[in-house]
């Protein structure tokens, strides 16, 4: 299995191209630097055709009962189960994440499909007490329309599924603009979608819009798409938000994070080190929830750092499909340059590299997992931004209050964690004056969320919520309805008219 090439995987998955006749999108294996396949982007005319097909399908799909819509998503989940390993390996080949994480990503798709199937029998509105006699006041949730889904390279298949599985049961049709760095993953998923769509008379519910920034921009400006769900960097998210807002469309934004973990005296250090190492090094630091800042209470700073260094020494770097490897390459040579620039900036700002810091002298985009002991957080600006690489900045703090102040002092607000056995400290961290992030964990790391909860973050992370809980509401339109079943016409607020 581990020796399969992207081409073989695509063949086994029965992929024929879903590209168009626009520019070529080259898939490059980040482990070797070798090209491994290509598809073509859509032209504007081809894009318009896919939107029109989606709109036509929407007319029928929105009236299909939600539990019937769920059957399409159930079949997709079953097909993903059958092809979990193949698709997971393809994810590894395009992103460089290790095999377990590639397969884990596909498992996440299966989980969200299961969730969405259940949800298809649970979409619900409220009935509200009316102030008027013989009146019923209620909320209904209706399908919204075609949804534009723009995704990042680092979760090339799961992020699409968080959106698409929910949107489909909600009665929407989906147009997916994947990252140009992972074109093969997107055509593979689309091939599976086409198979299930054929079984369920659902062609047009899921369609692909391959390309780079340009088709992403078309979606932003396209009034036929009432919602653009965007996952990516803050810089691009800002452009997307203002373009969609200028036509008064809706956005769901899942942008960059800059996630912090706090370790207090008395915490279980073994557990903390395992969670922090996975959080900082997993996916080579290329998760939106990667642990990037660590705040350690003074009394345990030295032993914790020693344990972290010891853990980092055991990290095997290499081909992500090789057994025992825990860290693969960064996605592109540009990502490696950003890593080096951040390490240099950290040094210039007074940071001390305690582990790693170097680019590996071998083919592919390999860097070392890096631990940097930092000066005070407020005099170390490199830590206020997200560098998408395995760099962990370590700050010594006097107490929880100092840790919280520094933790919340960045513009991003995705994920956070505290390691403590103190109930009081844990509750303080989770309180209204504690972590300001969308995700806050106790004795569990910042990354590796389950799909059952709503996922997303505050501040410049964009405020969107995807996946579990009531995130489905983003894909529907709310209608408040009053039904008068009496013979009089009482007006609200007691108004007498005539
Ligand atoms: P990116 O912003 O470079 O690209 C994201 C997507 O936007 C790609 O599909 C890209 O082609 C498209 N795009 C580029 N320019 C565009 C434009 N002008 N209009 C519309 N679309 C455009 O991000 P990336 O490097 O692929 O991914 C890494 C970033 O994504 C990190 O910041 C990471 O934190 C973030 N991310 C966030 C989450 C989350 O759930 N919060 C999840 C995964 C990744």
Tell me about this structure:
This protein is an alpha/beta fold and 498 residues long. It has 2 domains: 6-255 and 462-480, Aldehyde Dehydrogenase, Chain A, domain 1; 259-442, Aldehyde Dehydrogenase, Chain A, domain 2, CATH 3.40.309. It is built from 14 helices and 21 strands. The strands form 6 sheets. Strands 12-13-14-11-10-16-17 form a 7-stranded mixed beta sheet, sandwiched between helices. A 5-stranded parallel beta sheet has the order 7-6-5-8-9, sandwiched between helices. It has a 3-stranded antiparallel beta sheet with strand order 3-4-21, with no helix packed on it. β8, α9 (234-246) and β9 (250-254) form a beta-alpha-beta unit. α3 (66-82) packs antiparallel against α5, α4 runs antiparallel to α7 (183-199) and α10 (269-281) packs across α11. The chain is globular, with a radius of gyration of 24 Å. The chain starts with 5 loop residues before the first helix and ends in a 14-residue tail after the last strand. The chain binds nicotinamide-adenine-dinucleotide. Residues 150-155, 159, 177, 179-180, 212-213, 216-217, 220, 231-233, 236, 239-240, 254-257, 288, 386, 388, 414, 461 line the site of nicotinamide-adenine-dinucleotide.
